[in-house]
Design a protein that fits this description.
This protein is of the alpha/beta class. The protein has a domain at about 1-45 and about 50-65 and about 120-145 and about 185-325: CofD-like domains (Rossmann fold). About 35% of the residues lie in helices and about 20% in strands. It has twelve helices and 14 strands. It has helices spanning about 10-25, 55-65, 80-85, 100-115, 120-130, 165-170, 195-200, 215-220, 225-230, 250-255, 265-270, 305-325; strands at about 1-5, 35-40, 45, 50, 135-140, 145-155, 160, 175-180, 200-205, 235, 240, 245, 275-280, 295. The chain has a seven-stranded parallel beta sheet with strand order 5-2-1-9-10-13-14. Strands 7-6-8 form a three-stranded antiparallel beta sheet. The protein has a two-stranded antiparallel ribbon with strand order 3-4. Helix 1 runs parallel beside helix 2, helix 1 packs across helix 12 and helix 4 (about 100-115) packs across helix 5. The longest helix is centred in the C-terminal third of the chain and has 19 residues, at about 305-325. The two termini are about 20 Å apart. It binds guanosine-5'-diphosphate and calcium ion (CA). It comes from Pedococcus cremeus. It holds the Pfam family CofD.
Amino acid sequence: MRITALAGGVGGARFLRGLRAHLDRTPELADSTVTVIGNTGDDITLFGLRVCPDLDTILYTLGGGVHEGQGWGRADETFRVQGELAAYGAVPQWFHLGDQDFGTHVVRSQWLGQGLSLSEVTARLAERWGLPQQGVTLLPMTDSPVETHVVVDEGEGPRAVHFQEWWVRMQAKVPASRFVAVGMDQATAAPGVLDAIRQADVVLLPPSNPVVSIGIILGVPGVRDALRGATAPVVGVSPLISGAPVRGHADACLQAIGLESTTAAVAGLYADFLDGWLVAPEDEGTVTGLPRLAVRGRPLLMTDVDATADIAGAALDLALELKQR
Ligand code: GDP
Ligand code: CA
């Protein structure tokens, strides 16, 4: 089976690891391939290096190198380089980059500087983390530089800051009025992205942030149209349980675009292409007004790989059920 998934960082990566575990434990699905379309709106240039947080979280998680407790960054990390940068007064200091993590950003920046595209660079990084051996292809949503900026007002009038500054430095506590995907008007989908949606047997939306992860990917020219026209069923997993994000600030993101923080509102954002929606049991009756959407309730906490594999299995089962219709 050809599975295509759209993914942000931690929520996306954990779901994908569970998906791979489910495929591996299911003999008739074991030779399935997974193509991941990753969000690059979080990307930022720091200390002259290109950092792609969501792509790296997926690489580290699938490759077994992630800091489990944190969900991002490397396990057993040290911060000596950041300490040296601080000693020089180099900024910003609010974005934490470990020494091993720096290695990724250095080599990525080197290869980009040699003229490789972000897709080509990501494929090289994925080799090191063993994704091809798992049947997983990680595609950045676009090779064009796109950065999500956030319009905030700290009392001195509106100004735009990089998404990471709002998310990490401000902890999403300063109210946001708008998200702007800077560069998107010039962007095209990366090679393979639109075909991965058109040729998939199943399209999955992991429980990633609906606004600043999935929402940004949906803004890449052609992606939304490809999803609307896809022959494959599109099944999503809610990132909200009883209206609250399991982690992160999806509620603040939804509020910024004028929506309630509910799983129904998230489904509404995908209504033009979504066929199936997994929600937490307590949310099952709350998604109304979308008669075409098949809603199923089940526990959605990705507490460990096994529990996550069960969630991914349920998403695939729903997709296969919808395929027979
Ligand atoms: P980020 O880029 O690191 O913020 O990660 P994503 O965009 O991929 O995912 C963030 C979303 O994952 C948040 O909105 C969380 O609510 C959601 N999430 C995290 N853990 C879980 C979980 O165990 N279950 C569910 N259903 N959602 C989760
Ligand atoms: Ca992210």
